[in-house]
Specification:
CATH topology of the domain at 63-285: Rossmann fold
Strand order of the largest sheet: 2-1-3-4-6-5
CATH class of the domain at 63-285: Alpha Beta
Order of helices and strands: HHEHEHEHEHEEHHEEH
Low-confidence stretches: 231-235, 286-290, 303-319
Structural class: alpha/beta
Number of helices: 9
CATH architecture of the domain at 63-285: 3-Layer(aba) Sandwich
Strand content: 5-15%
Mean pLDDT: 76
Radius of gyration: 31 Å
Helix content: 40-55%
């Protein structure tokens, strides 16, 4: 026979179970809510940090060029051809800022501590341009680069960056120096250099070729010629050849990784092309071996173009904006 007290006891047990279940459910709901709130906060923080990182990566794009090249050339501690006296434009440095930053990352350095060496001094604009992009440790001194090589007095550096003189044998000598070095180098050279025999012997012997960063053909780099006759007006500048960057990273990073990284982060904000390492140069940048003088003369007469006045202009390896525009439309 069951007593009333027994029924009351069963009810109390059921009530306690019910309350315990409700408490457990309430705790689970609170934990779930807390987790969702925490996850949401973490996601927002990640997005905010990612936005800041992207803004920092692209900060250099908003920096505008300023007048840094003097109107008159200064004296130099070495012999130089006046026609070589040209300063590299700020835009050229902006274009390679991501790659310098990538080298700094690979060396576990900051942009400020990355050691950059430009062995050819013109008027010192190199240091000013790179400083505006955050690179504070730049060596570009008014001294003879080749004497420093002979005396083994070349400064320590992480990456060599330069636009060498075009006359005499400067291309061969700088390529020889870079070919022997195991360090990264960024050279701003005319498009015909990579088709020369000296390029193959000095660079390709390293078992790999540099990548090419090629500016828009309709917006080529214009170089400033301080003190040169005919270029007294600073805004004129000069574009003697189609030029682009030859980028070598030594053994620091894989070229394909660098290209994927640049394509993802920077390509949408750049007017440059960065062909894959295994691909040849774009057709408009290729230059085959030159024909002999007689054949060149015949070709010039055959393939000549006319300017606005109807005067025939022979085709050549020099930069021609009309030809560039025509090729761009193809």
């Amino acid at each position: 026979m069951r007593h009333k007290n027994d029924d009351d006891g069963d009810e109390n047990i059921k009530e306690r179970r019910r309350r315990r279940i409700e408490m457990e459910m309430e705790m689970k709901m609170r934990m779930k809510s807390t987790t969702e709130t925490t996850t949401s906060a973490v996601d927002k923080k990640k997005k905010k940090n990612k936005k800041k990182r992207n803004e920092k990566l692209l900060k250099h794009l908003s920096i505008k060029a300023t007048t840094t090249t003097p109107s008159k050339s200064s004296s130099h501690a070495f012999e130089c051809d006046p026609s070589d006296h040209c300063e590299t434009p700020f835009q050229a440095y902006k274009d390679i800022e991501p790659f310098l930053f990538r080298i700094a990352q690979s060396l576990k350095k900051t942009k400020a501590t990355l050691r950059i060496y430009d062995p050819y001094f013109c008027e010192g604009s190199t240091k000013e341009h790179l400083l505006r992009l955050g690179f504070e440790n730049v060596t570009n001194v008014n001294e003879d680069f080749y004497v420093n090589i002979e005396n083994k007095n070349v400064p320590e550096y992480d990456v060599l960056l330069t636009n060498p003189p075009y006359s005499a044998d400067h291309f061969t000598r700088i390529l020889n120096f870079c070919g022997k070095s195991k360090k990264p180098f960024f050279l701003l050279l005319p498009n015909f250099v990579c088709r020369k025999k000296y390029y193959a012997s000095e660079i390709i012997q390293k078992q790999k070729e540099p990548m090419f960063l090629i500016p828009d053909e309709l917006k080529p780099y214009r170089y400033w010629a301080p003190g040169r006759k005919g270029f007294e007006v600073r805004a004129k500048g000069t574009t003697p050849f189609v030029t682009f960057w030859y980028l070598d990273f030594g053994n620091l990073v894989d070229l394909n990784d660098v290209r994927r990284w640049w394509m993802k982060k920077y390509s949408a904000h750049s007017n440059c092309q960065l062909p894959a390492p295994e691909l040849a140069l774009p057709q408009q940048q290729r230059l085959q071996k030159r024909d002999n003088p007689r054949r060149r003369k015949a070709n010039n007469n055959k393939e000549s173009t006319k300017d606005e006045t109807g005067t025939k202009q022979p085709s050549s390896i020099y930069y021609d904006p009309r030809v560039a525009k025509k090729r761009k439309q193809i």
